[in-house]
Amino acid sequence: MSTKQKVEQRLRIRLKSYDHRLIDKYAKQLVDMLLKEGMQIKGPIPLPTEIKRFTVNRSPFIYKDSREQFELRIHKRLIDVLNPTPRIVELFSYLDLPAGVEIELKMI
């Protein structure tokens, strides 16, 4: 006999940030809070880092050979909460979301 509980609903939490240290710290804080409330979770799962590159001329007029390159890295993490309770909405209201971290919630 299996003691595994059937998963009926999931709350998918996606975190995005430009700073990997900030997103890892917030993901750990979020996981600790969810485990303290007795919820089953999967994650945090690191998703591929999205890299956007921009190339611009250094000079405003000619000298096309002189260019500068910039890149923007977007780090992502995924956390699944199995069979979430209605209390989870209250938990997110108590948690301070640091500037620079975007959170997206989706029920699947």
Structural class by SSE content: alpha+beta
Q: Give me the number of helical elements.
A: 2
Assigned CATH architecture: 2-Layer Sandwich
Integer count of domains: 1
CATH homologous superfamily placement: Ribosomal protein S10
Task: Please write the string of helix (H) and strand (E) elements.
Answer: EHEEHE
Instruction: Report low-confidence residues grouped into runs of 5 or more.
Output: none
Fill in the CATH topology. Alpha-Beta Plaits
Distance between the termini: 27 Å
| Highest CATH level, the class | Alpha Beta
Strands of the largest sheet, in order across it?
2-3-1-4
- Main β-sheet: number of strands, strand sense, barrel status? 4 strands, antiparallel
Which percent range describes the beta-strand content? over 45%
Overall shape: it is elongated
Helix content: 10-25%
CA radius of gyration: 20 Å
Number of strands: 4
Notes on the structure:
The structure is a single chain. The chain has helices at residues 20-36, 88-94, and strands at 10-17, 40-57, 67-82, 101-107. The protein is α+β, with helices and mostly antiparallel strands and 108 residues long. It has a 4-stranded antiparallel β-sheet with strand order 2-3-1-4. The two termini are 27 Å apart. The mean pLDDT is 89.
